[in-house]
Amino acid sequence: MVNGTLGMQPEYSLALWHGFNAPLLMSAIALCAGVTVYFGLQRYINLHSVTRLPVSGKHVFDAAVGALETLARRIVTWLPSTSLRGHLVWIVAASVAAMAWPLSHFGFGQAPALTSAGSGTYSVIGGLLWLLGVVGAFAATFNYRRRLTALVLLGATGLAVSLLFVTFSAPDLALTQLLIEVATIALMMIVLHFLPQQSPAEPGRGRQWRDAGLAGVAGVGIACVAHAVLTRPFASISPFYLEKALPEGGGTNVVNVILVDFRGFDTLGEITVLGAAALLVYALLAAFHVRRNHRAADIMDDWNPLLVRTATRLVLPLAALVAAFLLLRGHNLPGGGFIAGLVLACAILVLRIGGGGRPILDPAHLPYQPWIAAGLLIAAMTGVGSMLLGYPFLTSAFLHPVLPVVGEIPIASAAFFDLGVFITVVAATMLATISPGVLPEQFDGEPET
């Protein structure tokens, strides 16, 4: 090795010289520029006789900030800050603009090749289900003034989507879609019950045509995006999951193994967002009270017929049994913590609406906020346990012990993570759906403040 700069490479020596002399060079440039400006101004203005400039840099800065504030006020005044319709128009328009550029730049994909795989009975059933969903969506759009009818039609569209997932051999997606539809329809029924009997005045024809055109462009754009994605060649990671699910994840239900094993960190983030959203809904609507002129009569304990209240009491234990069954088998068969949580949450919601379980299902008796924290803690501690054993966060392990009478029992550490998902989903769903509608004061029939 040669000491000093003589043994260095020419490129390294040049970079080192620039590194040390860059500040000196910049100072020299600034000094020369200042001297040039000074003598240039001195030809027209005696700078030594000027004691105060008419406009300083601070004046320019304040004028620029004031102009920006004025522009911001005008933009806020112009934007529909208090109109939900206006917000939706801007959101959908921004989404359409975001779709337009990649579609125009990369094209709409190629025409799919016709094969015999889609022919037969399943193709006919899929086409009929697709037609049912389209008809239901259009019918709900044209019957929006009849709220209950539109809600039933929306439910029919969601059911058609669930059945389409079944025809594509996706039972986990079908169960999730079906349960989400049940919870959403129940929540919308609660909201519709407390809405005013009369709607506001209809907008003008121009606004209706604008909204219809924007909705049509958005729908066609989403269809074009889906077609472009599905008709382009791509290298899928699906074979890797199918190959590694059983030997490395210990489960045959690839969907659940992906959620709780391969992409467990994503799932942990998703249930965290779900819990935070439920807490936000509760914080915004916990003190919500429906005005008397928005409902026909006070809601009492016996607001539903005896038959309905008796039938709904039987739903909860059966649903709890089904939820436990789906939770325990989710690693190898369709199910899992998310689906099981939705089953139990929907049963509690039906029981709550049916009026048969007020004493045990009050938010005061079942505080859902601690349950959200408990579910997130269980899911996170599953990952911390693997770290304590020297493995990466959320690395799962599985065993197959053989018991004398029962036989072989598959046990996976991901089951504890799934338990955390289950608890979080139940608590978050109930906290978000119970708060804006069925409150304890409304069941008791007490006067509202």
- List how many beta strands DSSP finds: 4
Judged by helices, strands and strand pairing, the structural class is mainly alpha
For the biggest sheet, the summary is: 2 strands, antiparallel
Cα separation of the termini: 87 Å
- Broad shape: extended
pLDDT averaged over residues: 78
Assembly state: single chain
Low-confidence stretches: 1-8, 113-118, 437-449
Strands side by side in the biggest sheet? 1-4
- Helix content percent band: 55-70%
In what range is the share of β-strand residues?
Answer: under 5%
- How many helices? The count is 16
Please trace the helix and strand order, writing H or E for each element.
Answer: HHHHHHHHHHHHHHEEEEHH
Rg (C-alpha, Å)? 32 Å
Strand and helix layout:
Layout lengths: L9 H33 L14 H22 L5 H23 L14 H22 L4 H21 L3 H24 L10 H26 L7 H12 L4 H9 L1 H22 L20 H24 L7 H18 L3 H4 L6 H21 L9 E2 L2 E2 L3 E2 L2 E2 L1 H21 L5 H5 L5
Antiparallel strand pairs: 1-4, 2-3
Task: Write up what this structure looks like.
The structure is a single chain. With 449 residues, the chain is mainly α. The chain has a domain at 242-449. The chain is 68% helix and 2% strand. The chain is built from 16 helices and four strands. It has a two-stranded antiparallel sheet with strand order 1-4.
Core attributes:
449 residues, mainly alpha, 16 helices, 2% strand
Summarize the structure.
The chain is mainly alpha-helical. 68% of the residues lie in helices and 2% in strands. The protein contains 16 helices and four strands.
